[in-house]
Amino acid sequence: MSDTAHGITTGAVARRLGVSPTTVRSWDQRYGIGPAARVDGRHRRWSPADVAMLEEMCRLTASGVPPAEAARAAQQVRTDAETAVPDATADAPAAVPEAKAGSIVPAEDVPPAGAGRAGPGSGLPLGAVRQECRGLARAAVRLDAPAMERLLQEVLAEHGLVTAWEEVMAPTLHAVGRKWESSDDRYVEVEHLLSWHVSTALRRAASTGPAIASSTAPVVLACVPAEQHTLPLEALAAGLAERGLPTRMFGAAVPAEALDAAVRRSGPAAVTLWSQARSTADHALARHVATTAFGVRGARTAPLVLLAGPGWLGRPPAPGMVRPTGLREAIGVISRLYGEPAGDAAG
């Protein structure tokens, strides 16, 4: 994109950064990182140095740096760009303030696209979480898809799938869900976009696992009828693929008849049934699956059933079932079925 003699407009710079114009204006109002000059004293026009400053602001906040701190570092980037020789510094990396992974930082979230100046309750209810979690939340709230994708890849590469899910992905998803429930159906677009990118990252992680023998009995993964939440199962599928263990993912709201057919046809070593709420937990179906025998006469066997999700709480597991407390424990339980050491996955 070529800059005009007076710089580019707020709308143009927002498109270039992949954020909303409201976010750019909010940064100007809240942190003073507006354009160095304005046409006729009123209209914002962003110079190349201004754009470099905003690019650094986007990068730092997506990494979990608090916006106020990121704004101070970004302003220095503009100062450096204005005083340096252009050709000698075009590709120079920007200075990044040090921040320890996992440190707790204040919540200062940017309002979503279309919102005005942030008011009380505009931030996500994150609590004490990793810095990367706050970065992912900020990127989600401002609908910054490239930043979400980049951050999810970095977290998976640095911390591994289990930690990435338990300490970054799941807390952010829960925070967005709580915000949606308490704000009259606002933030639905944030939840959908975040869920899509988390799902994409999990499936990409699953596809990079070692080759799996087709003759090995798989693990069936399914949501109970009327249950639509699949992301925890996708995280489990990725964790098992990481260990070279086979899965068959049947997704959301699997009818009882279809689940029965899937179990009988695939002969799984284990069946994981996800229930998000007690209203969807189907204990009769779980007992049926746990007693479904298959194989040759005289050597028939039944799968181990994992009751996964908060919907199963409140009732002890029946024989042939276990109720793992989280992703790490579920991977450990299933790994032992295949004679694999539980390792870190078992906690």
Distance between the termini: 50 Å
- Structural classification: alpha/beta
Beta strand count: 7
Unreliable residue stretches = 84-122
Number of helices: 13
Q: Give average pLDDT, whole number.
A: 78
Specify the helix fraction band.
Answer: 40-55%
Proper CATH architecture of the largest domain: 3-Layer(aba) Sandwich
Percentage of residues in DSSP E strands: 5-15%
CATH superfamily annotation of the largest domain: Cobalamin-binding domain
SSE string:
HHEEHHHHHHHEHEHEHEEH
The first-level CATH class name of the largest domain: Alpha Beta
Strand order of the largest sheet: 4-3-5-6-7
Largest sheet: 5 strands, parallel
Domain count: the total is: 3
Note the main attributes of this structure.
elongated, alpha/beta, 5-stranded parallel beta sheet, Multidrug-efflux Transporter Regulator, Chain: A, Domain 2, Rossmann fold, 47% helix, 347 residues, two-stranded antiparallel sheet, Methyltransferase, Methionine Synthase (B12-binding Domains), Chain A, domain 1, 3 domains
